[in-house]
Structures are given as C-alpha cells and as structure tokens.
Specification:
heterodimer, A: alpha+beta, Glutaredoxin, 8-stranded mixed β-sheet, about 40% helix, globular, B: Rossmann fold
C-alpha cells in the first residue's frame, strides 16, 4: 500500500467512526429496562418481555414527526437486510388515535409492529422527550444503545452493528 | 418600467402590506437604542413580548392589534436587530440583561400590570429577564406566558431526563405554559413544570388541541392551526386570566 492509499484508508476509517458515533450511542441510563406492555392496531397486547432472545428496536414516534415519516421506509428495508437474524421492531406511537395512525399506515405501509401508547404511560416510564427516540434492546432484554432523530436504518454500518448485537 | 407600472407597484405595496394600529417607541439603554412596536390600549394590562424576529412576525402583530382593541397594550421590542444579532438560538444569550431591564422598567413606568410573553427558545430570554428583574427590584411583574417553550440545554437523549437551560427554575413569577398537542414536547411538560416550580413559581400548563409547536409561524399550517392562529388573542387573554388567579 502506498502512502496515498494509506492516507485514504485512514480518512475512510475515521469517517466510518464518525458515522457510528453520530448514530447509535451507548445507553448511559440506570436501572432495569422499563416495562413495555401495549396494544397494537388490531388490539393485540405486546410485551417486551416476550421478545427476549431477539434484538429489538423500540422506537417512539408520531405521525406529525417529519423525520419519523422519512425514515420508516428504511426501517422496512432494515428488516429485509437483517434476514434470519432474530430482530424485531416495535414502533410506539406517542399518544395519537388509532384513526390517525391507521391513515398513516395505509400511506407508508410499515412492515413492523405499531403499538399505541394512548395514555403516554410508556413515554413517561421510558423518559422520552422527543421524537423519534430509539432504543436498541439486546437479546437479554437490556437497553444497549439509543438514538435520537432520523437516520437511514438500513445503512451497512447499522445492519452490521445490529447483527453483531444478535451474535451474528 | 414606465410611470404607470411603478405607480401600480407602489399602490399594491401600500395596500397589500398588513398594517396594524401601532407606533414605534425608541427605548434608550446604556448599550443601544431599542425599537419597540407599541400597540397602545387604555386598559391596565401591558403584555411585553420578546419576539426577536427582526420585525417579521405578522401573526404576532395581528394578535397584538386584536389584544389592543380589547384593552391590553402590547409592546414588542426587537432585541436582535438592536444588537445586530442573527436570528439564531445562541444570539439570545448575547442580549445584555441591562437592556432587558431597561425595557421592563419602561413598561412598568406606564403604571400598568406587566406580563411577559415569548415563544420557543425566546422563552429562555424571558425567564432570564424575569429572574434578573426579581433579584434587583421591588416592583413585581404580574406573570408570564410561555408559548411552546424550548428550554433543553442540549439535544435530548432517549431514556435520560433532560437538562434545562440554567434560567429554568430561577423566577417566582406565575407562569402559564402553552404547548401544542401535536408535538413530542407535550410529553416534557410535566418535567419542565416541575423544574420551573423549583423556585416557587406557580405554573399552569395547558395543551392546545390539534396544533404543532410554532403553529403560528409555519409555512404549511393545517386548518386547525389556521383557526387557532386566528384565535391567538383569545388564547392569550384566557392565559392572562389564569395568571391573575394564581
């Protein structure tokens, strides 16, 4: 490798590092993972405890949140790129009505589970103050990373990180 | 361009520009002269807003004119232009406290009950003005209206209770907090209210149904947001009523 290639490689690695650092951040909160026990749009209850053994992306979002709308297609693509890795997305709507969310679902067609937090109970217990707020849960049920704001979920770095967390 | 076309342009400009009953008052401070848009009224209440918008707040002007018609005098000092600061969040911190004090002093000299009002990040400027005024003066302000306050110290981290800017929880002023229902910030009202109450303030918070934050400044307002913007004066009058009861 000549000097020029070496410099380019160093720059590339540095930029990759920035990309990681600006996306998922190690979770620094204290205490156990809060409970998540909510209905989906069909009225079926989902409990985060039931997803142990999988990596779970818990996202708090709302239909009026621009970045949330923008990133959802990349979440659909992420599911495909994760392949047979045990991975689940639970997208928690922040206090809107089923009617509002249903219109949005018809338009955006998310291929993941939408949960309804109509009372804001989960929003409060998960200390969510902005949208989209994302939590990555490891197969043991612990919050490992968080991310605030919109992102391309199907980027190679993100897929690699999530697969690594799942042990793949 | 011939004379006729120039005349049409001139007439269009004069008649299509919104003009509300206002006067410009200049308040001299130790630093600069500050231009204040005054919507004069005969009543005993004066609403002092820190719009920091370089004079471009049309919805606020319409609201101010409506309030003045109902007897509430409104002052809108343009703090950013006075100090030639760009309209950025960090600029608010560069506005000297002495200038804010001079404007509050001038407002109180009218003998009216003075209420403060601000929206978004300007609410930090309002809280600074209120707390500094309380610390140095006996004559008190009557209260303040915070419209969708944006007072986080930094970008919120999921799972962590946010830190607020240092001026939060420093004033005893009664506070009315209004937030849009269609914004994630509504979920932070409880936490913010609790922080604001730390200094002894009575805080009353209310959600405005079906609107986003900054609803009256948006380029893409929904029908609900247009309606609420047209009723903003009424919303503020109700807020002043609540503040009187606190």
């Amino acid at each position: 490798m000549n000097v020029r290639s070496l410099i380019l490689a160093i720059i590339f690695l540095s930029l990759s590092g920035i990309s990681y650092a600006s996306n998922l951040k190690p979770y620094t909160g204290k205490g156990p993972t809060p409970a998540l026990h909510l209905e989906d749009l069909q009225g079926q209850i989902h409990d985060l405890q039931d997803y142990k053994g999988q990596v779970v992306l818990v996202q708090f979002w709302a239909t009026y949140c621009g970045p949330c709308r923008k990133e959802m297609p990349s979440m659909n693509k992420l599911i495909k790129k994760m392949g047979d890795v045990p991975f689940k997305i639970l997208a928690v709507d922040m206090g809107e009505t089923k009617l509002e969310v249903s219109h949005f679902v018809d338009e955006v067609k998310p291929e993941f589970t939408i949960l309804m937090d109509s009372t804001g109970q989960a929003i409060s217990s998960w200390n969510v103050f902005a949208a989209p707020s994302n939590f990555i849960i490891d197969p043991q049920g612990r919050i490992r990373y968080t991310l605030f704001g919109g992102v391309e979920w199907d980027s190679a770095e993100m897929v690699m990180k999530l697969k690594a967390l799942a042990g793949h | 361009m011939n004379l006729n076309i120039a005349l049409i342009y001139f007439i269009s400009f004069v008649f299509l520009s919104p003009v509300y009953a206002r006067e410009i008052k200049i308040i001299e401070t130790s630093d600069v002269a500050i231009e204040v848009r005054v919507f004069a009224a005969q009543g005993d209440k004066l609403l002092l807003g820190f719009p920091c918008d370089e004079g471009r707040s049309l919805a606020e002007e319409k609201t101010a004119a409506s309030l003045a018609e109902d007897g509430i005098e409104v002052w809108m000092p343009d703090m950013l232009s006075a100090f030639m600061l760009p309209n950025t969040r960090s600029s608010r911190a560069e506005i000297p406290t002495t200038s804010l004090m001079a404007i509050i002093n001038a407002a109180l000299e009218t003998g009216k009950q003075v209420y403060l009002i601000a929206s978004g990040p300007d609410t930090a400027l309002l809280l600074r003005a209120a707390s500094e005024w309380e610390a140095k003066h006996k004559k008190l302000l009557a209260g303040a209206v915070l419209l969708f306050p944006r007072l986080f110290k930094s970008e919120p981290v999921p799972g962590i209770i946010p830190e607020y800017v240092d001026v939060v929880g420093k004033t005893k002023l009664p506070l009315m907090l209004l937030e849009g229902e269609r914004t994630p910030n509504r979920w932070g009202i409880k936490s913010l209210t609790s922080q604001l109450e730390q200094s002894g303030s009575h805080v009353n918070s209310r959600l405005i149904p079906s609107v986003r934050g900054y609803f009256f400044k948006r380029d893409d307002p929904s029908r609900s947001e247009e309606v609420v913007t047209s009723q903003l004066a009424g919303l503020i009058k109700v807020s002043l009523f609540y503040l009187e009861q606190m």
